């Protein structure tokens, strides 16, 4: 079964053709990051406008690269939330038009379910159940993945997402947007104990997280140093931030697997590309005998293939949308 999939929830426009859920025939992604970089973050209206400009050409590219025509497509999948509402609406409306014109089923896909599904593409042997650690620019959560379309959140950030924390601190350090990778490069060789940064303790939850205190502490450190004319150990600060974020995520993820009785953990989302987090996850999972799946960097960020993959499993579960499908900025997983 061939699925044509669309993703436009933030600042990547993507179209992909996926066969039977796991075989990616094409994955055309256009990042707008450069365009938003001058503003230090994503500007929602610009994102929507760029999606409008790019989506048709990306669709042609995805079909050509896959070596198929529109008529070969069996179903259309699209991210319908969560994300920037204007950005999502571009993908949703385009996907509806394609499904309507071709008279094919339309499958709505939750963005984070898609991120988790990126692991099915990278690892053919992976099957639920497992714990999904979803860490991106807009979300940070632990998901109990009981089945391909059966999942629930068991812990989430109470405030900022991990990626947002990286991005905001990067901005104060004068690094380009998105700040995760530049922060990682800056942390290289830095002393991760240089600056004592707070670790959040959530009184009434083992699995919920918080990143805003850490973000504020790091930002204040940088501002204070600047005001006092002190030299900031930028590399040390970047390494200390990465260590603090990782410590917020990794022990909770491993504990979640243990409590759910699972021997498998899969990471997902843009922040799952982070070297420190990957290394800490590897170490912790090895110690706890947990099988760890870390998607390749190309599948950590937003892409259409992951939506095509999850779309397949949603299709098998009978999930369909009609022409009244809307987009949702917030959406339960
Ligand atoms: O999943 P994604 O591409 O988009 C969302 O759905 O949010 O994630 C983007 C986030 C940004 O915050 C970016 O700074 C972060 O992923 N990121 C990283 C790294 N690469 C991307 N964060 C830490 N380390 C990285 N190497």
Structure description:
The protein is of the alpha/beta class and 333 residues long. It folds into two domains: 2-115 and 301-316, Nucleotidyltransferase, domain 5, CATH 3.30.420; 129-299, Nucleotidyltransferase, domain 5 (2-Layer Sandwich), CATH 3.30.420. It contains eleven helices and ten strands. The strands form two sheets. A five-stranded mixed sheet has the order 3-2-1-4-5, with helices on both faces. Strands 8-7-6-9-10 form a five-stranded mixed sheet, with helices on both faces. A hairpin with a 2-residue loop joins strand 7 (140-147) and strand 8 (150-156). The chain is globular, with a radius of gyration of 20 Å. The model has no long low-confidence stretch (mean pLDDT 97). 5'-O-[(R)-(carboxyoxy)(hydroxy)phosphoryl]adenosine binds next to helix 5 and helix 6. The site of 5'-O-[(R)-(carboxyoxy)(hydroxy)phosphoryl]adenosine has 19 residues, from helix 5 and helix 6.
